[in-house]
Every structure is written in C-alpha cells, then in structure tokens.
Amino acid sequence: MSKRDLLIFLFKWKAGILGMFFVVLAAAALIIFFAPPSYSASAKVLVERTRPPVLRTTLAPAMDLAEALNTEAEILVSRTVMSQVVDKLKPHERPRKPSSISRTVDATRAWMEQAGLLYAQSPRERWIQLLQKNMKVKPSIDSSILKVSFGDEDPQWAARLVNAVLDEYVVQHVRMFSTHGTAPIYLERMQAIEADLRRRRSDLEQLKRRLSLTAIEDTKRDLVRRNGDLAGQMQTAQTTVDTLLLRFEPAHREVVLAKATLARLARASEQVGEQLTRLESQQAKLDETQLEIGSLESAYKDYARRYDDARLTDLASANAINVGAVDHADVPERPDNSRLFLLLVAAGGGLVFAVLVAVVREYFDRRLADPTAAEDILGIPDLGSVAFIAHGRLARLSGRSSG
Q1: Could you report the per-residue pLDDT of 168-184, keeping only the tens digit for each?
Q2: Band of pLDDT at residue 390, cut at 50, 70 and 90
Q3: CATH second-level architecture of 38-178+321-331?
Q4: Which of 37, 200, 202, 403 could bond 335 through an S-S bridge, CB–CB 3.0 to 4.6 Å?
Q5: Where are the domains of the chain?
C-alpha cells in the first residue's frame, strides 16, 4: 500500500475513525474520573539460598536461586497464607464508601449469580481468591529479593494487607520447614484429650454409682438361672398340654388350665428376657465407656511423648530462617498512575481501535471508488464518471445554477 492509498483510506473513513476515537476516549474518561484510584503498596523479602530454610542441627543442601525464589513465591501466595490474612484482618467486613461503578459491578454480579451464570461465593472466599490472584510476587533481576505488591482503592488497607501477608508468610515458612511451633499444637491436643477424659471418667463414675457391677453380675446370674427354670417348666407344661389334647377336646377344663399355665410361664420368660437385655445393655455401655477411656488414655500418652520430643527439637533448633523482610510496606501517598497518563493511554488505545474498526469496514466494503476498478470488473471502457454529491450540497448547487 502506497502513501496515496493510505491517505485515501484515512480520508474515506475519517468520520468513522474520529467518531469511534472520541467515543472510546469519552468512555475511558468517564471510567477514569468516576472509578476510585488504585494505590499499590509493596514490600521486599530476602531469600538466602545458601542457607537452609531453618537453622537445624543437620544441614540441607542449598537450592538453586530460581528454585528457591519460586518456592518462596508459591508459599507466599498459597491459600493457607491468604486465608489466615483474611481471617485476621477481615477485609470483607471493613466499612466502604460505595461508588457508582462498584454498585454497578456488585449488582451485575448478584444478577448473574441469581441467574445461575456465576457460582455464588461468600465474601471471605471471594477475598481469598482476590488476594491469590492480585497479590503480585516478582523476583528482582540478578538478586535474591522478592518484591511483593498489592493494589487497593484504600492506601492504608493496601499496606496492611501486604504486611499481614508478609507476617503470615514467615509463619507458614517456619511451619513448613521445621518442627518449631508443633509443641503448642501437641499441648493443645493433650489438654483437649484431658478434658474429654475427665468428662468420660465422670460419666463412668455416675454409671458405677447407679449400677453396681457386682449387683449386675448377681442379678444376671439369677435371671439366667430363672430363665432356665422357666424354660424347663414351659417344656413340661407344653408336654402336659399335648398329652391332654390326646385325651380331651381343646375346650375341656383341664386343657384350658394347662394352656393358661403355659401362657403364664411364657410371659414370665419374656419378662426375664427383657430384664436380661436391659442388663446386657447397661453392661455394654459400661464396657464401651471403659474402652473409650482406655483409648483416650493411650492417645494422651502418645501426644505427651510427641510433645516432649517437639520440645526437645525446639530447644535443639534455632529460630533463624533463610528469609526475612527487607522493607515492609508503607502507606502509598499517591495512586499508581495519574489521570493524565491514563487518558493518554486511553487516547492511544482508542485511536488504534478506531483504525482497526476502519480497516474491518474497508475489508468488507464492496463499493467501487475508482473508475479503473469498474473497468476491470465490468470489462467495458469508462466513458465518463460523476462524483458522489451529498443531498444537501446538491440542493445548494441547484439553487446557485437556477439563480
């Protein structure tokens, strides 16, 4: 394409290019002036790859610089760190001054969630994902420094979030690479088991006071013996009934009395069985409580052993680690970009977008603007051509000629 063709293209679509440019620029200007500015707070973390993650009695081989930086960056933006930060600061509960854009975005999200286009999320979960996505961690060139930054419309909150992430990251680093800090966890578990043991032992004492084990055993033996006697008597009564039925009719007085005796023995045997079942249930409850107490005592001894081992490990290990904060985040005093810069970027983007729209329109435009092109398509010579004249201009020309 020659310069002449380029100029022809620009003059042909100048109205569309200018119109699209000003539309994009106006829309960008509205967003820039009505949207709250973003403030970025940043901090720096030193990662010493030649030292082990924690100072142990046994040294670990040093990691490659890129491996060390990538490992620490992944720990820094992990969900565990971000969830701890959100639970600590609760950014979703902070008072906010809603803007028109934020209200529009919230209303649109609520409508899309109600329509099923988006899955509904709790504010806590939304903030965790927001921090994981927008917390930027970049290594500095030719150094062992990680730069951590986060942008928010509130400069104080931006600094608080970055510093909180930094603090929780150090805690998570220590938790992952050493046993330091596990002793309190074991101690807490021991205390919980001890409280459960006291409760179970109290329940067992109450059961023992209410139900004597010796009385249960004696009563159980008596009931078993009585149940056996009743079974023998029922067998004898059944034999008597069968014998009488061979001699008399079922309605005979002797048969009716024998059947009544058999029914009375059956009811007595059923009552004895219910008492045995109740006693066995009580005995099973006592045995189950004792087994639970034994299991809890075993778990308590195991956690006590782990607690002692963890305390010894903590005493044998120093608190020194291979990462540390070089700079904590300060409250940013001005936004990331000025409105003038954003308007210039919007102007450049709008111009490029307008030209692209004009190129697309030119590609799909099938009108003939050159007589030579008409000759090539139709295959006949051009005898003359009349330029396109707008309707208003044509009316003015007609008025001049008539005057």
Answers
A1: 888 887 777 665 567 77
A2: low
A3: 2-Layer Sandwich (3.30)
A4: 37
A5: 38-178+321-331, 187-316
